[in-house]
Structure formats: C-alpha cells, structure tokens
C-alpha cells in the first residue's frame, strides 16, 4: 500500500501510556483534498489526523501512529474520554453531501484491514466521529457505506431481529448517552439508518438491541461472551 507522507506538526504524546483502541472515521467537508491538507498541516488550526484519503484513493500519512493526532476533540466512547489518546483518526476527502468515491473506499478498506490486524482490534473498534460526539459532530455522515465495511469484516452491522430499550442498549454499545436521546438517535441513524426521521421506532430499537447484544463496549465486555476473531461479518 503506497503512502504519501505529508507531515503535520499538530500532534503530541498519547497520554497516560494509552494504546490504540479505536479507529475514528471523519469526512473533510472541504472542496478538495489539497484544501484539507492545508488545514490539517497548518499549526494555526491545531487539528490533524493520522491519515487522509483523497477522492482518487491517494493515501496520505500526516501523523505517525505512535503519536496523538488532534482529530476527535471532546467526546466519549465506551464510558471513556480523551478519544485522541486512544485512537487513530482517518479523514476522508468528501464534501459531506455526496457519495464516497470507489477509489477512496478501496484504499480505506486496505488501510482498515492493515490497522485492525496490526493493532489487534475487533471491527467494532471502527467508529464514526458522530458516534463519539453525538450532537456536536455528524461525520462521516449518512452517505458513508458502513454496511459495505461490515460485509468485509471491517466494521459491524446490527441484527435487526431483536427488541430492547433504545437508550440502555445505546449505552451498552458505547454511545455517550448523557448527551440526550435526540443526539444519540441522530448519530445512530446517520450510521445505521441513513435519512430516517421521526421518533424512535421499532427498527431503531431492534438494531440498537442487536448492537448491544453482539458488540458490547469494552466497559461491559467483561460480562459478555467472547466475540469471534476476525474476519467477522454480521448483516
């Protein structure tokens, strides 16, 4: 996998000896890849990511994986904050209102496969920026192909045959439910039910129950059965 190095000065030490536990996906919401590179590599903006993938599939490395890139900001996942110290951030060159190019997705899939293997992560470790910061962030947005990643063992997809309590199950899966039901529902739908609207319904409760049962967060995983090793697929 060819990588183009475009070093960013915006990084620091991973705090408290934290290891990589998550991979957070973003979209740039900018007109072109060079615009995103300019922002992510500019010390005045104090933002970065470990990788950026262009619409043409070019993979840029901005920050070494050993370092703490500044991509996630405030937010929580699985009951823990400082997501930057515990994650690898990947920016995707996309305007947020259109489909993701095939070349970009192909490169992303190769990168995720490599990262999951090297860091010994379950596919549930791949999350959206909106997952860990619901109500504040909406990327990579409803156009992103999460189900495609799940089909290739690079993310997860819920079992739609269950029923449960939406917010309780959301907490069990890892969402920071303290932000409120509306924010959690919006983040959930952006990833798993793109363009759905209205109040919480049976499909929302069923899919969230499936996530909670099959992919509990690390905080609650000690009481759950051991998950299968990769490759892992659920539809």
Please give a handful of descriptors for the protein shown.
235 residues, alpha/beta, Lysozyme-like, six-stranded mixed beta sheet, 7 helices, 8 strands, 11% strand, globular
Question: What layout of secondary structure does this protein have?
Answer:
Elements: E1 4-5, E2 11-12, E3 22-27, H1 33-40, E4 51-53, E5 59-61, E6 68-69, E7 87-92, H2 102-118, E8 126-128, H3 129-132, H4 146-151, H5 166-173, H6 181-192, H7 202-214
Parallel strand pairs: 1-5, 3-7, 3-8, 4-7
Antiparallel strand pairs: 2-6, 4-5
Helix pairs in contact: 5-7
Describe this structure in words.
This is N-acetylmuramoyl-L-alanine amidase. Keywords: Cell wall biogenesis/degradation, Hydrolase. It catalyses: Hydrolyzes the link between N-acetylmuramoyl residues and L-amino acid residues in certain cell-wall glycopeptides. This protein has 235 residues and is of the alpha/beta class. It has a single domain, classed as Lysozyme-like (3-Layer(aba) Sandwich). Helices cover 29% and strands 11% of the residues. It contains 7 helices and 8 strands. The chain has helices at 33-40, 102-118, 129-132, 146-151, 166-173, 181-192, 202-214; strands spanning 4-5, 11-12, 22-27, 51-53, 59-61, 68-69, 87-92, 126-128. The strands form 2 sheets. A 6-stranded mixed β-sheet has the order 1-5-4-7-3-8, with helices on both faces. Helix 5 runs parallel beside helix 7. The longest helix has 17 residues, at 102-118. The radius of gyration is 17 Å and the shape is globular.
């Amino acid at each position: 996998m060819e990588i183009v190095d475009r070093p960013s000065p915006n990084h620091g030490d991973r705090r408290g000896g934290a290891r990589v536990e998550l991979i957070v996906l973003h979209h740039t919401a900018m007109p072109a890849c060079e615009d995103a590179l300019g922002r992510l590599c500019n010390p005045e903006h104090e933002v970065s990511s470990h990788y950026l993938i262009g619409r043409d599939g070019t993979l840029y490395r901005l920050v070494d994986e050993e370092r703490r890139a500044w991509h996630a900001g405030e937010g929580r996942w699985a009951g823990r904050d400082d997501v930057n110290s515990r994650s690898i951030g990947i920016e995707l060159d996309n305007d947020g209102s259109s489909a993701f190019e095939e070349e970009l997705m192909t490169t992303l899939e190769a990168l995720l496969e490599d990262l999951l293997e090297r860091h010994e992560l379950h596919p549930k470790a791949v999350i959206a920026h909106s997952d860990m910061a619901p109500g504040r962030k909406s990327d990579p947005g409803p156009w992103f192909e999460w189900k495609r990643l799940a089909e290739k063992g690079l993310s997860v997809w819920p079992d739609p045959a269950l029923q449960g309590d939406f917010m309780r199950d959301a907490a069990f899966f890892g969402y920071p439910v303290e932000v409120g039901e509306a924010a959690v529902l919006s983040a959930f739908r952006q990833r798993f039910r793109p363009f759905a609207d209205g109040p919480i319904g049976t499909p929302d409760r069923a899919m969230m129950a499936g996530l909670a049962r099959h992919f509990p967060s690390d905080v609650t995983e000690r009481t759950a059965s051991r998950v299968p090793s990769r490759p892992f697929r659920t539809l």
